[in-house]
Amino acid sequence: MWLASLIVALVATLFGCAAASIWGRTGPGFPVRMLGCNADSTHQVPGHPDYFVSRLGITLDSKGSRQPTPGDFGCNWTYMRLVLAKMDWGTHSLEYVATLLDANTGQDPVNSFPTTPIQNGKYVLQSAYDPTVMAFNGELWVAFECWGSGMGSVSSCVGPLSTATPAANSVIDLSRTTVLIEGAATPGAGYAASVPKVFVHDGRPYLYYDAFLTGPGSLAQRGVPLEVVGGRMWVKGAGAASYSILDPLALTVEVWAKNHDDLLSNNIADVFNVIVDGPFVFATAGVGGCAGGTCSAPGDNMGLKGCYRLALGRSNFPLGPFDYVLNAINSSTLPANSHEYAKVIVDPSFNATNIYGQFLASRSPPGFPLPAGFQAIPLPWATAAGPSAQQVVGFFGGRPGPCRADQRPPNWGERAGVCRPSCGGLGGSASFVDACYTHGLEDAGVAYDVPFCCGAPAACGDARHRLPDWGVRDGVCLKSCGGLGGTKGSDSACARMNMLDAGRAYDAPYCCYDPPCPQRRPQAGFS
């Protein structure tokens, strides 16, 4: 499979060679020509490497009226559509094929373009952008950031293509398109469910999305399983209805945690691409923090060290912590540029893999510099003599083959470069995708085969679980809000106060804390 070779090539190259010798055949990278102005968020269609789904501005004429699709590809636009494009691998240029979704709430009465209602008219799409694509049960599903009437704020939508393969007559089937995570209004801003990433792991569909509190400019990465009910896709457990971003702890889990002890990594964890290889999940991201100011968008990069620098992560689980993260601050093998939308793609014409994205002028050493612009960084395919899958896992985690000969599966396995026992070997009795204490259970230790391995129930009232630090809520022994790092308890969602969720506490319906960066420069428009 090309994906397995891609991961072997990517990881072996990054960790096995000197940085000066690995980046491309003709220099540090090569430019890729996008379809139009700000059309830099694209996604390669699984199983059809010549085709990409891209965002594209809905351009206006000189009188301010909407142009017929696909428009003139210029910069005079307010909202966005989704289109199908085909790559010319000889020139590395994307060429327009078809319009998949021409979002419209009816804001142009002069030309009377068709409106785009979804969910039986509950919402009407006004803008659609930042797509990703997954192949699931014989269909191609396109997730995209969406905005329109009926939505509290920017949301995450998904719908299937009308054709089994990408073609000139492909469209997104609006009768089966849904809002997976609905954004919400907050004081003076919004809580956006943006840049949705859909993928399949072990035959099951999943979603990662940016939980972006736009007022203070703090962004977390959350994940949730999906399910198909009645031909439409929904958040699993949401009752075949759109799920509100205001209640993140009930069904979703933070997957790429911000490092609160690192001022360069404590505010932004913006994942752009998710790649599955066997049991493992790899991701590309832009990360940033509060050092020298507030990193809250790629446009904040000038003068802020490490703002939206490229990071690579790996997890043993589709919903669980990314245990190992490599980024441009701690590795000279990655570009130093601030960036957005970095993704790993395959070039079938050369049997090559690439990381491509929009790289900006600002740079943070020790990473190496790339020219500003939409650049691709070629990586060679692995040869037959390349590292084995187990060695690749070890390379990415820090050292190859961490388990001894007597530490054999299924009782032992690798996690983040360390040989760990199974949950059963630790005496665990339950496992979850979030921390054991949120379920009133003791932590049994770090296991290789589950995100969190849990043991006996926590016993409120014993020597380690005394009031006021611990208490009972709904029959479960939980920490206090202060013990979780919260600074304010509330009867309403934390985002309503432009605050973040600290976790489930016994002494407050919602336990909240202030975002880490004190100020934020306002951002406008689509990034």
Describe the fold and architecture.
The chain is mainly beta and 527 residues long. It contains 3 helices and 33 strands. It has 3 domains: 166 residues, no CATH class; 207 residues, no CATH class; 106 residues, no CATH class. Strand 19 and strand 20 form a beta hairpin. The longest helix has 15 residues. The N terminus and C terminus are likely disordered.
Quick structural overview:
The protein is built from three helices and 33 strands. With 527 residues, the protein is mainly beta. Helix 1 (2-16) packs across helix 3 (389-397).
Which key terms come to mind for this protein?
single chain, 527 residues, mainly beta, 11-stranded mixed beta sheet, 4-stranded antiparallel beta sheet, 3 helices, globular, disordered N terminus
